[in-house]
Amino acid sequence: MSDYREYETLLTEKKDGYIIVKTNRPEALNALNADMLRDIADVFTAIARDDEVNAVILTGEGRAFVAGADIAQMSRLSAVEGRAFMKKGQAAFQLIEDLEKPVIAAVNGFALGGGLELAMACDIRFASDKAKFGQPEVGLGIIPGFGGTQRLARLVGKGMAKYLIYSGGTIGAEEALSIGLVEKVYPADELIDRAVAFVDKVLKNAPLAIRMAKVAINTGSEADLRTAVAFEAEAMSTAFGSEDRVEGMTAFLEKRPPDFKCR
């Protein structure tokens, strides 16, 4: 079990089997500054160590998920300092992608610039019908620097990624759904409940199997098919050798709910 400290820019609420992490700079539309990047890295490091947490819901306080990076802070950085800031953001978001537990982004409002990049580091994106998405960096004389040029192209294809980044414009939730940027769109007042309901479904399944599936998908998507399916076989073998595989198949044959143990 890991303890969660009081974060300057985040709120955490630990539930039975999962945790809700909420960005919390509503006065700045939850803009990403150095303190928030540090807090994101810290909380996801703690989550990775916490055997009582098997899923994460990431959302925002107020009207925004994250409305972008903190431009007031960025405007004072030199080129060297700007690069260090980008690397800090990339490292924090990589912790989310590499976490061997599902992370669901519940995008409650603006997800612009670094906010969209944060959402794209998550496994699955649920959006409020009021959410707005975009990568407006070129209007500031820069480009996405927290992984946006790479994750966006992988999610929606190179052409659509270039369209969104070159234009610097924003799109609504339904258009984001139509291009595959988000998986589901819900009324704003249902968003968190829907995310929780999905997590409840996930938590009924074998945690080790979920972890192996995430690792196999993430690793395989960056490899050629032959290498990817070979890795899948190894991940499957890990799951197949677990107590949960025995329990899951036994429960199926006995027509009862499984009682999974592996964490």
Which geometry do the CA atoms define?
globular
Summed over residues and divided by their number, the pLDDT gives a mean of 95
Uncertain spans, ≥5 residues at pLDDT below 50?
none
What structural class is derived from the secondary structure elements? alpha/beta
> How would a crystallographer describe the biggest sheet?
6 strands, mixed
The CATH topology label of the largest domain is 2-enoyl-CoA Hydratase, Chain A, domain 1
What's the domain count? Answer: 2
Secondary-structure element string: EEHEEHHEEHEEHHEHEHHHH
The CATH superfamily of the largest domain is identified as 2-enoyl-CoA Hydratase, Chain A, domain 1
Assign the CATH class of the largest domain.
Alpha Beta
Strand order of the largest sheet: 1-2-3-5-7-10
Query: Helix amount, in percent?
Result: 40-55%
Gyration radius, in Å:
19 Å
Task: Tell me the fraction of residues in β-strands, as a range.
Answer: 15-25%
Q: What is the terminal separation in angstroms? A: 12 Å
The number of strands is: 10
Level-2 CATH architecture of the largest domain: Alpha-Beta Complex
Number of helices: 11
Description:
By secondary structure, the protein is an alpha/beta fold. The chain has two domains: 10-203, 2-enoyl-CoA Hydratase, Chain A, domain 1 (Alpha-Beta Complex); 207-254, Lyase 2-enoyl-coa Hydratase, Chain  A, domain 2, CATH 1.10.12. Helices cover 48% and strands 15% of the residues. It has eleven helices and ten strands. Strands 1-2-3-5-7-10 form a six-stranded mixed beta sheet, with helices on both faces. A four-stranded mixed beta sheet has the order 4-6-8-9. β1 and β2 (19-23) form a beta hairpin. The mean pLDDT is 95.
